[in-house]
């Protein structure tokens, strides 16, 4: 009589296939949850910028100042500061909302999709280049450089230690530290 071994055979190949499938499924679920949970609530909290415009502006700002290390929260905080300014200035609020609509229209004309829905960064940059001479584009670019890079949390992510005058200047705080040159 022959005895069958009913234990599960788990070899390297099955382990890798199962692991990859599990990680991919978990990533798809978590990214979907993050997208659904974070963007609408943040956009709804704005007062002067409409939710659809906020989504477009967020994608635009991420393309203007791309940093893979920075999550959307830093860009959202920068846009929230612009929203506060727009809440006090109806002209600015109109410029932001109408500019976002115009950006989506330019995207549809060039790529048949709203700006935030274009998957390839290179295609979104092409759309941005088509509007770079507009006052809307110049306003976003100029205000966001300050609003984004004026956040101490962003400084930490980018490796900037902050002002050094109160510590005697950079000459005593890493001026001669050339560790960064090895990475270049």
TrEMBL record:
Domain of life: Bacteria
Keywords: Plasmid
Name assigned to this protein: Twin-arginine translocation pathway signal
Organism the protein comes from: Azospirillum lipoferum (strain 4B)
